[in-house]
Design goal:
Layout (H helix, E strand, L loop, with lengths): L3 E6 L2 E6 L13 H14 L5 E6 L23 H10 L3 H6 L6 E5 L2 E3 L1 H7 L3 E5 L3 E3 L13 H9 L1 H10 L3 E2 H6 L5 E3 L4 H13 L3 H13 L5 H16 L2 H12 L7
Parallel strand pairs: 2-3, 3-4, 4-6, 5-7, 6-9
Antiparallel strand pairs: 1-2, 7-8
Length: 262
C-alpha cells in the first residue's frame, strides 16, 4: 500500500499519509521516495497552486520507526554507513518539501512526534486539531534530530522554545503550540480539513507563478542579507510585471470587476 494518498481538486493537491497502522512512521517504508516524487511532480506542474498535507488515523506522524532502529545495533552498520543512510534517506524529505515553491498547509490531526513534528515544520502554514500534540522527542530515545529539526524548529518557535522542546523531549498540546507560534490556528477535529481547504482555496485564487515567487522570497529572506533580498525581489518583480496575471489584475481593478487568473 502506498504511503501517500494523493488527491487533486482543481488547483489544490492533498497529500494524506496513509499508514495509520505504523502511526504514519517516515522510515522503514516508502515514505521518503513518495514524498520526493510527489514534490518533484508538483514542482513541474504549474497548475498546482496549493498543497495540503495531512494524515489518516489518530496520529499525524510518529516520525522514525523506533522498532526499525534496532538494526543499527549491528556492528556491520558503521557510523559512516549510518550517516550516508540519513543523507540518502530521510534527509531527502526536507530537501524536497521545504524547498517546494508551492505553498503547503499542514493539517495536523493528532500527535506529531520527532521527525513528524519536523515534517510539519517543513510546511509554510500549520493548522492543528484540538487533538494534536507536538514533541521534539529525539533525546528520549537517545538520538539527535537527524532530519533537520535543529534548523527547522527554531525558525518556527524561536530558539528558546525550540531548546526547551529539544532538551526535554516533552510534548506540548495544540493550545501551547498556538501560543508559541508553532501553529496559526487550532480547530475542532471535524473542522480541520474544511479549514485547511478554505485556506487553500484563498491561496489558490491568486496567480500561481507570482505565488511561487513570493514563497521563494520568503524562504530566501530567512538567510539572505537585506541587500541580496532586495536585488532578488527586483528581478522577480520585473518578471511579475510582464505576466498575463498581473495585466489581468490591474485591468480588473480599473474596471472594478473580479480578476480572472489562469
Amino acid at each position: 500500500m502506498a504511503f501517500l494518498n494523493i488527491q487533486r481538486d482543481g488547483a489544490i493537491l492533498t497529500l494524506t499519509m496513509n499508514q495509520p497502522e505504523t502511526r504514519n512512521a517516515l522510515t522503514g517504508n516508502t515514505a521518503v521516495d513518495e514524498f520526493v516524487q510527489a514534490c518533484d511532480a508538483i514542482r513541474r506542474d504549474a497548475s498546482v497552486k496549493a498543497v495540503i498535507l495531512t494524515a489518516k488515523g489518530p496520529v499525524f506522524s510518529s516520525g522514525g520507526n523506533v522498532k526499525d532502529m534496532k538494526r543499527f545495533f549491528d556492528e556491520a552498520l558503521t557510523p559512516d554507513l549510518i550517516r550516508e543512510e540519513y543523507r540518502q534517506g530521510i534527509q531527502r524529505i526536507p530537501r524536497a518539501l521545504y524547498h517546494l515553491d508551492v505553498p503547503v498547509i499542514c493539517a495536523v490531526n493528532g500527535p506529531a512526534i520527532g521527525a513528524g513534528l519536523d515534517l510539519a515544520c517543513m510546511c509554510d502554514i500549520r493548522i492543528a486539531s484540538e487533538a494534536a500534540s507536538f514533541a521534539e522527542s529525539f533525546v528520549r530515545v537517545g538520538i539527535v534530530p537527524g532530519d533537520g529539526g535543529a534548523w527547522l524548529l527554531p525558525r518556527a518557535v524561536g530558539m528558546a522554545k525550540a531548546s526547551e522542546m529539544a532538551f526535554t523531549g516533552e510534548a506540548i498540546d495544540a493550545r501551547e503550540a498556538l501560543a508559541c507560534g508553532l501553529v496559526s490556528r487550532v480547530v475542532p477535529a471535524g473542522e480541520l480539513l474544511p479549514t485547511a481547504r478554505a485556506l487553500a482555496e484563498k491561496i489558490a485564487a491568486n496567480p500561481g507563478a507570482v505565488m511561487r515567487m513570493t514563497k521563494r522570497l520568503l524562504r530566501e529572506g530567512e538567510h539572505a542579507s537585506l541587500e541580496s533580498l532586495l536585488e532578488l525581489s527586483a528581478g522577480y518583480q520585473a518578471i511579475a510585471h510582464k505576466t498575463a496575471d498581473h495585466r489581468e489584475a490591474v485591468t480588473a481593478f480599473i474596471e472594478k470587476r473580479t480578476a480572472r487568473f489562469l
